[in-house]
Specification:
ten-stranded antiparallel barrel; globular; alpha+beta; single chain; 11 helices
């Protein structure tokens, strides 16, 4: 019997602290994994709400460039649950993957990977519908991808038409003129050293909403950028919490939702450099989580569970008959700010699968 991604998840069940996931919630994650091949993604990420004692998770996984054929039209549907493609969102996802697989296309040149995000709050549907995040490659911003030393394009000269075509594919309809104008505004106001590295249609939530992530910001750049796109009024709430946290991390990522107007809801990701995951630098994560506990944004049990997660193990995914090293780590903290409500915090923790060549 062909194994599924559920089997991959089950092999790691013993590593999940009880404060992060209950048996019932883990079953929801596994139910999502049953729709996909076991190595469809070389890893997964989980979202937990730090101030909520409920051990409930959301699931993300990435499709990398070297595995992108799994969802294109020419791949036999037997690799995936055929029920998925009775849903219009999945039909459009397949169209997007087919375009991504065309050599020399804009998606081929500028998309590094696609993330599928599954919200698991409530009853798991028979056909899970994800939000699809496109991760934009650095080459999109370079004047000449073959000569990176020539530097980056001016933000106003970025050709974003292919992005709207991809979003229209996922939406199965045109992006409104207001949403397009506001998204271009976000690109045009990028500051030196920053970029929009992820963009999505939130099909599992509000289909017309576009999510963008602006990466590489420090605190003052964040405030300046919010002013430039017309969200300067949101700074007051952020300034009550962010300064003490920003100094504990390397940089910030702004997450905003766009339609014909900008959503007042703002997400701020607290990021370390990629190499400073929990299995490499527990001290920094410990300090950051302790600060969140002191601010009332994280309960102690969640902090302890996250610090237990990091590590590595060798696994054998039979019948693939291939040994893998699994690296478990903390990925990021995300603060969510809504007007007239206290902020909340989420943590994202992940695992990555690497082939293990030694006997």
């Amino acid at each position: 019997m062909a194994r599924t991604f559920a089997d991959t998840l089950q092999s790691l069940s013993g590593y999940f602290p009880e404060s992060l996931v209950s048996g019932t919630e883990f079953d929801k994650i596994v139910s999502i994994g049953k729709h996909f091949p076991s190595l469809m993604s070389m890893g997964a990420a989980f979202e937990t709400r730090l101030g909520d004692p409920t051990p409930q998770l959301d699931l993300f996984f990435a499709i990398n460039r070297d595995n992108r054929g799994v969802l294109k039209d020419s791949i036999p549907r037997s690799l995936l649950d055929p029920k998925l493609f009775s849903h219009p969102v999945w039909q459009q996802i397949r169209v997007l993957f087919s375009t991504w697989n065309i050599s020399g296309s804009d998606l081929d040149m500028f998309i590094n990977r696609l993330f599928l995000e599954f919200d698991l709050d409530g009853v798991t549907p028979d056909i899970p519908v994800p939000a699809v995040f496109m991760q934009i490659r650095d080459t999109f911003y370079l004047k000449d991808p073959d000569l990176p030393q020539n530097g980056f394009k001016d933000a106003h000269n970025l050709e974003t038409g292919w992005i709207f075509e991809a979003l229209s594919t996922l939406k199965n309809g045109p992006i409104s003129s207001g949403a397009s104008a506001n998204t271009r505004r976000c690109f045009n106001n990028l500051l030196p050293g920053t970029c929009i590295d992820h963009i999505a249609i939130m099909a599992s939530r509000t289909p017309d909403a576009i999510r963008i992530n602006v990466n590489g910001l420090d605190l003052e750049q964040l405030y300046s950028y919010l002013e430039s796109i017309g969200l300067g009024s949101r700074k007051t709430q952020l300034k009550d919490v962010l300064p003490g946290l920003a100094k504990l991390v390397d940089h910030l990522v702004l997450a905003i939702d766009i339609s014909d107007s900008f959503s007042p809801r703002i997400g701020i990701e607290l990021r370390f450099p990629k190499g400073e995951r929990s299995i490499y630098n527990e001290t920094k994560w410990d300090l950051l989580l302790d600060k969140l506990v002191s601010l009332g944004l994280c309960i102690k049990e969640k902090k302890e569970g996250l610090m237990e997660w990091g590590g590595r193990s060798r696994e054998l995914f039979d019948p693939e008959l291939c040994r893998f090293m699994i690296f478990r780590y903390l990925d990021l903290i995300k603060l969510v700010f809504n007007p007239n409500r206290p902020p909340s915090a989420k943590a994202y923790f992940s695992f990555i699968i690497h082939p293990f060549s030694s006997p």
